[in-house]
Design goal:
Length: 209
């Protein structure tokens, strides 16, 4: 970044040099440098799988906060949000910031998948499954998943979007697994995609497997 900035200043001082075009190229180089730095930080987090302090949290409240962060707040009429949250789920011992990162990423993915349609629906639901896990589902009525990437979705650098690196879902998987949980994708009929993750019910003071 420092070399790019120094080069830009040097070229601007040369009389008659095509600064505008060169400046645009250097701006692109700077943008890609920042993007590369973000990728490196993400990969480092994936490799370290660092464990942070966990606190007792209400899952329904966490989801409501994530919706406020992940859904455009500018009166966007295209996406309708439906919440189906089990009020009887116990409090979970979780890393709130990391789990909220998972929820916001899945919500934004769903919103983007419905960007071209009017009346798309984003649904978030929770339940206690048959094995005693807290299960969360984030689903949409968007374009669905291409079969070519469905099996590799959670691998680093796999993406269906332009100008995306494909790190987000890999990080979501690492975060959920660091809590002792699992995450997977499902087809939504007649159209759409869902992401489901489940977390063990851990009482305060218990260790996470």
């Amino acid at each position: 970044m420092s070399y790019v900035k120094a080069t830009k200043r040097t070229l601007e001082a040369i009389e008659g040099f095509p600064v505008e075009r060169t400046g645009a190229l250097l701006a692109s180089a700077a943008e890609e440098t920042l993007r590369a730095g973000a990728i490196v930080r993400s990969l480092r987090w994936l490799s370290e799988k660092r464990i942070r302090e966990r606190t007792p949290e209400n899952l329904a409240r966490l989801i409501e906060e994530a919706v406020a962060l992940g859904v455009p707040g500018d009166g966007e009429p295209r996406v309708h949000v439906h919440l189906d949250l089990d009020p009887h789920l116990p409090t979970l011992m979780i890393d709130k910031v990391r789990l909220q990162q998972v929820l916001v990423h899945l919500i934004r993915n769903s919103v983007e998948a419905m960007a071209e349609q009017a009346g798309g629906q984003l649904t978030l639901s929770t339940r206690l499954d048959d094995e005693g896990f807290a299960e969360v589902c984030v689903s949409d009525t968007g374009v669905g998943l291409p079969t070519t990437v469905a099996e590799r979705l959670f691998h680093p650098f796999v993406t269906t979007k332009e100008k995306r690196v494909g790190i987000g879902l890999a990080i979501c998987k690492a975060i959920v697994e660091s809590h002792g949980g699992t995450i997977w994708a499902i087809d939504v009929q007649p159209q759409g995609t869902g992401f489901v993750f489940r977390l063990p019910i851990v009482e305060e003071g218990e260790a996470v497997a």
